[in-house]
Design brief:
There is one protein chain. This protein is an alpha+beta fold. The protein has 3 domains: 156 residues, no CATH class; 145 residues, Double Stranded RNA Binding Domain (2-Layer Sandwich), CATH 3.30.160; 53 residues. The chain is built from 10 helices and 13 strands. The strands form 4 sheets. Strands 3-2-4-8-9 form a 5-stranded mixed β-sheet. Strands 5, 6, 7 and 10 form a 4-stranded antiparallel β-sheet that branches. A two-stranded antiparallel ribbon has the order 1-11.
C-alpha cells in the first residue's frame, strides 16, 4: 500500500467540557474553609451630616425668633406711645408702626442626600459566593469587607447653550482584606479603585433654570441610584476577585481534537483515541473523578504518541505528514495539560514550534496564557495541599 493510500486529511472535532479551576492563591494547607467579617464605617459621618444640617436649621430658626422678638418690642413701644407722639414721629421722622413683614425667615438649606449605612454582613452574604469554599466560624482564613459609604460633590453646570447638564462626582468605596489567624495577608485591596471619585452628568436642558428644576426634583433619586449602582458593581467585582484567587470554580473549555481521516474514512486507532479523550475531558469537573479521567486521557495520549512514531514531515502524502503531526502534538499537549503531565506539555509545545506549521503555532499562542495559568494554579494548590504526583 503506498503512502497516498494512507494520506490523511485533517479532521477536527470540537469538544466542550467543564473542568475545575484551582485558586491562584489557595489558603494555607489548601484549607477550603473561611469566615466573613463585614462593617460599615460611615455611621459617624452620616450622623455628623445630619447634625450639621439640623444645626443650620436651628440657626435660621433662632435668627428669625430673635429678629421677631426685637420687632415685637418695637411694635409694643410704638403702641404704648401717645397718639400725639405717634403723629409727631410720623410727620417729622416718617416713622410708622413696624410691620410684621419687616422680619422674614431665611430659607432652609436643601438637605444633603445622606449616604446609606448598610447592613454590611447582610450585603456580603447576599452578594458574595466563593465556589468550593465553606463558610464556618472555625476557619483559619478571614475575608473582611469594609464599606466606607457614599460621598459626592456638589454639581456644577457643564455643556453648551443647547445642552446643559449638572456634572458631579461620587464614590462608594469597598475594601476587601483576606488574612490568616497568624496575620498573613492573602489579599488587601480597594475594589475597582473605588476610593477615587467617578464623574457623571445629570440632566439635559437648554437653560439653567430648567436644569435647576430638574435637579431639585431628581437629585435624590439620581444620587441614591448611583450609590446603589456603584455598590453593586463593586460587589460583583469583589466576587470575581475572590473566586479567582481563592475559589474552586467550575469553568468551561473547548478544544478541537484531531481525528485523522482519509478517503476511506476515520482511522480506527484515532477514533478510539478521540473517544478516550472525550471520556477523560468529561470527567474533569469533579475532583473525585480525576483518577479515572487521567486513565482515559493517558490511553488517548499513548495512541497519539504511537502514531507519531510514523511521522514523516517531509512527505505531504505520508500517513503522518506535517499537518497530521501538528494535530497529534496539539492533541497530546492539551490532554497532557489536564492529565497534569506538565513535562509532556512542555515537550509537545516545543515540538509544535519546531514543526513550524503556522496553524498550530497560532493555536498554541492562543492557549499559551491558559496553559501557564492552569499549571501555576495547580502547582500552587499542590504545594499547599502537599500533593505529590
Amino acid at each position: 500500500m503506498n503512502n497516498a493510500t494512507f494520506a490523511q486529511k485533517v479532521k477536527n472535532e470540537k469538544v466542550k467540557f467543564s473542568y475545575l479551576q484551582y485558586p491562584s492563591k489557595p489558603f494555607p494547607k489548601a484549607e477550603r474553609k473561611f469566615k466573613f467579617e463585614a462593617e460599615s464605617t460611615n455611621q459617624a459621618a452620616v450622623d455628623k451630616m445630619k447634625n450639621e444640617h439640623k444645626a443650620k436649621i436651628a440657626q435660621i430658626d433662632k435668627k428669625y425668633a430673635d429678629e421677631l422678638a426685637a420687632l415685637k418690642k418695637r411694635q409694643a413701644a410704638y403702641d404704648s406711645s401717645s397718639t400725639g407722639n405717634k403723629i409727631i414721629a410720623n410727620l417729622l421722622l416718617g416713622d410708622e408702626r413696624p410691620a410684621d413683614s419687616l422680619v422674614k425667615k431665611d430659607p432652609y438649606p436643601i438637605a444633603p442626600v445622606y449616604p446609606k449605612v448598610i447592613d454590611a454582613s447582610a450585603k456580603v452574604h447576599s452578594n458574595i459566593i466563593i465556589q468550593g469554599l465553606t463558610e464556618t466560624n472555625d476557619a483559619n482564613a478571614t475575608i473582611k469587607f469594609t464599606f466606607g459609604g457614599m460621598e459626592y460633590t456638589a454639581p456644577h453646570v457643564v455643556g453648551d447653550s443647547l445642552h446643559l447638564g449638572y456634572e458631579y462626582t461620587i464614590k462608594n468605596p469597598v475594601k476587601v482584606t483576606a488574612t490568616t489567624k497568624d496575620g498573613n495577608v492573602l489579599y488587601d485591596g480597594v475594589i475597582n479603585n473605588s476610593e477615587s471619585y467617578s464623574t457623571y452628568v445629570f440632566g439635559d436642558a437648554n437653560d439653567t433654570t430648567k436644569l435647576e428644576t430638574l435637579w431639585a426634583k431628581g437629585r435624590v433619586r439620581e444620587i441614591q441610584g448611583m450609590e446603589s449602582f456603584l455598590l453593586k458593581g463593586h460587589l460583583t467585582k469583589a466576587n470575581e476577585i475572590l473566586n479567582e484567587k481563592f475559589g474552586y470554580v467550575i469553568k468551561e473549555k473547548s478544544f478541537k481534537v484531531f481525528m485523522g481521516a482519509s478517503k476511506k474514512g476515520i482511522y480506527p486507532e484515532h477514533a478510539e483515541a478521540y473517544n478516550n479523550a472525550i471520556l477523560g475531558y468529561h470527567l474533569l469537573e469533579n475532583e473525585s473523578d480525576f483518577t479515572q479521567a487521567k486513565e482515559y486521557l493517558d490511553l488517548a495520549i499513548a495512541s497519539w504518541e504511537k502514531s507519531l512514531e510514523e511521522k514523516n514531515t517531509g512527505d505531504k502524502k505520508a500517513k503522518i505528514n506535517s499537518k497530521v503531526a501538528g494535530s497529534l502534538h496539539f492533541n497530546i499537549l492539551a490532554a497532557s495539560l489536564f492529565a497534569r503531565d506538565f513535562k509532556k506539555v512542555a515537550f509537545h509545545s516545543a515540538q509544535l514550534k519546531i514543526l513550524g506549521e503556522g496553524k498550530y503555532e497560532r493555536q498554541l499562542a492562543a492557549i499559551d496564557e491558559f496553559i501557564n495559568d492552569y499549571k501555576a494554579r495547580y502547582t500552587a494548590y499542590a504545594k499547599e495541599a502537599g500533593v505529590t504526583e
